[in-house]
Amino acid sequence: MSGIYKRGQGYWTRMMSAIAAGLLIFMGAVWLWDTIAGVRLGDLQTVYVQAGAAVVFITVLAVLSYYLICVHTRFVDFLIATEGEMKKVNWSTRREIMGSTWVVISFTFIVASIIAFLDMGYSMIFQTLKVLESAG
Q1: Which residues are CB-contacts of 69 (< 8 A; sequence separation ≥ 6)?
Q2: Closest among 21, 6, 11, 5 to 87, alpha carbons compared
Q3: Which one of 43, 63, 80, 88 has the largest count of C-beta atoms within 10 Å of its C-beta?
Q4: Strands, DSSP E only, in 33-121?
Q5: For range 39-45, the mean pLDDT
Q6: Is the dihedral of CA 52, 57, 58, 64 positive or negative?
Q7: Which tens digits make up the pLDDT trace of 74-126?
């Protein structure tokens, strides 16, 4: 492994990728710790086996993450290109999002009302035809 490839580029995608990788590695280490809770190796207590496995797990995956996020040229170029594309995105304003949300909520209530009305109508028809028993 050498130094960081294209050090000044793709800062935010690298940082967020590193944070996500760290979180996943930590959760994996906790899972591993719980999974091997009853394992003993020779005279070693379980806690030492758990700690050793967690340290090896964290170390191996941290080195792999560093390699992918900082050294592997194709992966780093992908992260840099991703950040470049994200800068081109035209993000919606708060007003546009609020307007769209109200349209969706209104449409949902309208559709729910239509379905409820049709359900009551079909229930009345089927009760009249004696296909359904009346509730009261």
Answers
A1: 14, 17, 18, 21, 75, 76, 79
A2: 11
A3: 80
A4: none
A5: 83
A6: positive
A7: 999 998 998 899 889 898 999 999 999 999 999 999 999 999 999 999 999 99
- The residue whose two tokens read 């591993």 is 32
Long-range CB pairs of 1-8 (<8 Å, 24+ gap) are 1/66, 1/67, 1/71, 2/71, 4/70, 4/71, 5/70, 5/71, 5/72, 5/73, 5/76, 6/76, 6/77, 6/80
Looking at the predicted structure, is the pLDDT value of residue 11 above 60? yes
Question: Is pTM, for the whole model, over 0.90?
Answer: no
Q: Cβ-count burial of 8 within 10 angstroms (0-12 exposed, 13-18 middle, 19+ buried)? A: exposed
Tokens 């995956």 label which residue? 61
Quick one: which of 57, 6, 3 has its CA closest to 29?
Answer: 57
Residue ranges covered by each domain of the chain: 11-88, 91-136
Q: Structure tokens of 64? A: 């792999």
pLDDT of 1 over the 60 cut: no
